[in-house]
Amino acid sequence: MQQVERAIFDLRRGLPVVVGEDADGAGSSVMVYPVESIADTNLAEVLETAGSSPALTLTRHRMEAMGLGLNTDAASLPLKGGDGLSAESLYCAAAAVKGGRSDLFEEPRPASLAERAALALMRRALLVPAALTARIDGSRQAAVERAVEEGRILRVPARLAERCFESGVGMLRRVSEADVPLSQSVRSRFVLFREPDGLREHVAVLIGDANEWSREVPVRIHSSCLTGDLFGSLRCDCGEQLQNAVQAIAELGGGVLLYLAQEGRGIGLANKLRAYELQDAGLDTVEADRVLGFGDDNRRYRVAVDILADLSIDRVRLLTNNPSKVRALSEGGVEVAAREGLYGRVTPQNRRYLKAKASRSGHLLDEVLGK
Question: Where exactly are the transmembrane stretches of this chain (predicted)?
Answer without folding.
Answer: none
